[in-house]
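Bug #77: duplicate submission created two jobs. Keeping one. Sequence:
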Amino acid sequence: MSSDQQHPTTDEQALRQELAEAQATLRQLRSAMPTNRLIGVATGIIAERLRVTPERALDTLVRASQNDNRKLRDVAMDVVNEHRGLTTLDG
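Kept job's structure:
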């Protein structure tokens, strides 16, 4: 192995760093997608029930999350589960 292969150049190191960052971003986006969909479904349920715009429904969901000091995805899950008849919002 030549010394060039043993010690990556600055360009190679920069490319490796960029690749690692891109892979981390991709992992974050993939993990966020289901949560984003869940929040969207919950927002739609609230909009339909309260007969409000999606923006107003999302504000309602966010406010409930903040008031209960719970993660938005957890509040959204409760809304969706309650809609499906799996649990109640209080329980």
